[in-house]
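Repro:
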Amino acid sequence: MFLVVFFCYFALLCTQSTASLLTDEDDAMAWYERFNLEAQEVWYQSTEASWTYATNITSQTQDAKINASLVEADFNLKAAANASKFAWKNFRNATLRRLFNTVTDVGSDALGRKSKDKLLQLRSLEAEMEKIYSKGKVCNNTNTCFPLNPDLTNILATSRNHDDLLWAWKGWRNNVGRAEKEKFTEFVKLLNEASVENGYKNAAEDWISSYEMPVESFKQLVTTLYFELKPLYEQLHTYVRKKLMVKYGEDKFPKTRHIPAHLTGNMWAQTWSNVLDLVQPYNKTSVDVTPSMKAKGYNAMKMFNISEEFFTSLGLKKMPAKFWEKSLITKPANRSVVCHASAWDFYNQADFRIKMCTVVNMEDLITVHHEMGHVQYYLQYKDLPVGFRRGANPGFHEAVGDVLALSASTPSHLKEIGLLDNADEDYGLCCHLSHLM
């Protein structure tokens, strides 16, 4: 009903000739305010359906998620069409221009303008790949099967047996990567089509647009940063490779001189902190507080409570009651879930959650702080119009999470919360390697 009211209330916009765009900014603001109210409801319903699927992967929840996303897409496309009846690019009010820009740029929903069937295919592929990824397992010779979280993740992090590491790394890619390959190829094709429909050359240009700079300028910026970091990375890479050669033998390393990904302690080789014990150059106790956490009886709730205390000590907000009521912080035993840690904003100014299959170790303690950093950001902008309830750009949102997480992982803070016995003045110097990894 609310959709009917919303679009009929502005029937004038639906019949307005494209040759005579509306210019009254007061009318435009009134239109946006009504859109804002309706968008909160539609986006909440879609996000709730996505959450239900991510925390209980079944055919029924998958269908419900897809259907809700199509309802949201229909709403977004109609709203974009109505917003385009205004000459919003010429508005004097810069804030209003930005708000209308967020309405008219509908992302991958734009594929629905071209073909509703293709949009359905895109959403179905997305859900199907998420299911394959989340349910994927690797089975050994005794037919014992291991899911990614926590089993394979733990093997990559803690095993020091080369063959076991290679088995877990290759097995995951053989079972999950191959099952997704054709779907992913079709997904990319459709995503590019959606971006073209949305006015971009391809999906890459669409994503880069979030940074509000010309594509070539963005590429140049990234290239400059890459070459600035390259000398430091090459030194770090060379040092770590040498240490790992000592552990596993030079015959396990190719002549290309790269580090085999399965030896980095992480399924994606994106962080190397889990091999710190093999490469730490200083004769000091490791900053890894996992043993201390286990000795002190930490569980997932304790880790989340510690994280909240960190944020409130900075003068930031406590987690809302619904956060504790509705978040999923441990892996359920009786159903399949998407274990990849993520923070969620439900667009109703009251409901914010984290989904995470928390394991008691330092890596997950830092991840908890990272994800709660996202929620802190949500809480700060929750009262803004829906078009502004997002990061300044995708990288900025991640930067907020990482800055706060890194602050929580310093030796001085770990000592303050009772997880590290000593934090010598030179401890930070010796632990820089850990942070670089």
